[in-house]
Every structure is written in C-alpha cells, then in structure tokens.
# Entry
Amino acid sequence: MKTSIYLPDEMAELVRERGISLSEVTQNALRGMMPASAFVSVPAIGEVRGVPGVEPMLQVILKAVTAGLPDGASAMFLVHGLLQADGGRTIDLGMAEPFFEQLSYGPSETRKPQLQPRWRISAAGVERIEQVRAGGNFMLQVGVRYGLMGGTAAPGWEEPHRPVRVPFPDQPTQVIIKAHDWVRDVLEPWQQAVAVSLVIPLPQSGATDDHRAVIARLADARRELDSGNWKASIAASREAVELLRTMRPAPVTARAQSRDLHEREAVMLDRLKDLAQAMFDYDSAASHADAQLRHIAWNRGNAMLAMGTAASLAQAILACPAARQVSVP
# Structure
C-alpha cells in the first residue's frame, strides 16, 4: 500500500528550486522541518557591497523567502555581523541598523524579498578592518532576528504571543569573500583602494621554459602573499625578476625615426632593465641570511611592491615580441 504525502504549494515550489527529490521519505522529513503554512526563511547570503556616504557603509544582501502571511504583514529585522580573516582574527561588526520590510502583499503569496542590512563604518573602523584582513580573504557570518507585525494571527503560526523569532527553516550561515572581490566590491566604492587585474599571458609562439618559470614564480608570490608569508612572497618575486632582467630586445635600427612599432616598444622596454636590476637588488634582501639583513621585518607593503613590480615587468616584456627575442646570461 502506497501513501502519498503532499506539501503546500509554496513549500513544494521552494523544494523544487533547490533540486530536492520529492520522495515520500524526503517529504516526511521536510514536513517535520518546515512550518505548515506561514514562515519567514533566510536561506542564503548574496552580495557584499561597500556603499559610499558621509560615513562608509557595508551592505549585505540576504535572500529571504516568506509565505502564508496575511496581507500587510511586516517585520523589523536585526542583523548581527562578524568578519573573520584568514589568520583567525575577527572583527565584530555589531548590530546593523534596524530596518523594516513588508513581507506579504496577499494571504497566500510566496515572496522572495532581498533584505539589505547596513553597517556604518568609521574611518578608524575601515583602517582596523584592513589591519585584521592583512590583504587576505574574509569570512562573513551573520545572525538574523526579526519582530513580526501584523502576521502573528496567521493560521498555523505557532506561539503568536512571541513575535520575535529567528528565520525558519533556514538561517544564513557564512560566506567567503575573496581578497580581490573585497577590494573591488567594498574598498573601491569606499574610495579606499582600486582593484586592477593584470593578465600575464605566455607568448603565443616561442614560449620558453624561462617564460613559464616567470609565470610560476609570480603565482608562488601571489599564494605566499595571500597566506601572509611576506618574506617568502618577496623571495618568489625575486626569482621572477632574476629571469626577467636577462631578457633583452634584439638590435634595433639606429635612426629613431626609421624604427617600426616593435622596435619602438623594444627601446622603451630596454629602459626598464635598470628597474629590473633595482628590484632584484631589493628582493635579494629577503633571500639571504646576511647578518645585516636579519633584522628586516618584512610587511605586506614590501611584498606588494615586489610582486606588483615584477608582475608589471613580466606583462610588459612577455607581451612584446621584440622584447623577447634575445636573452643574455
């Protein structure tokens, strides 16, 4: 004998969106987890954005789902935030500014509102956040509570005398914010930084082991930087620069007016050899154990200088055919 168990329409739609199989076992489990009719759920964290203002604001988009509430039901939301850096250090954002949201425009309508809590961040707060982040990633954790107004009389709304709740069946947990996304989506709108993606392609033809080694060493420098290993990152950048400084353009026409485009690029890039040598000398201090170098306390700014300059040199040299033609020992 087969027994069929059916979900309310709005619950079935939510389950289908999540790709969950509506087997009898699954339905039984879901009926034990979800309210019979009225509910307020916040299943996911969406975007994290910086908002410019008199004081910078951090805005988080929370994806909510509501159903079964009477027309006009609204809620005041309280959202607590916590940022955790890669190294484990945390920043307690405290409670976001309280905000209201109308949750229903009809007694049986399922809605998917976007909740937008905002935290005001002072200039000192921005500086503190960046000190804790140390150039790495952040994990954002949020906790949501809400006070329901005008919906506690909905059929199936348990304990109507207790209007302050947490979202059910889903409460948002956490989201990882990559370092580049944080710079682009938060710091740039705050006018605190600029995110620039620098693409360093291998030559389409004539790529050598040295070219590949440059790319590999720069990738190592980036990984060490993301992990907070400043000295190791600088040492990896030095290995890339060591190869780049040996790459010289082929001879060019002596008369400047007669040079073609590639020759003009080659002359320009040849002038970078002094910069490449200077960066090699700078980076070398992180690769040697000489007594006069041991006291140096490398920081993120040093590592960014080394990696950024090496990456810029690599992009310029490897992108220019005339600048790759000759390598000298």
About this structure: The mean pLDDT is 80.
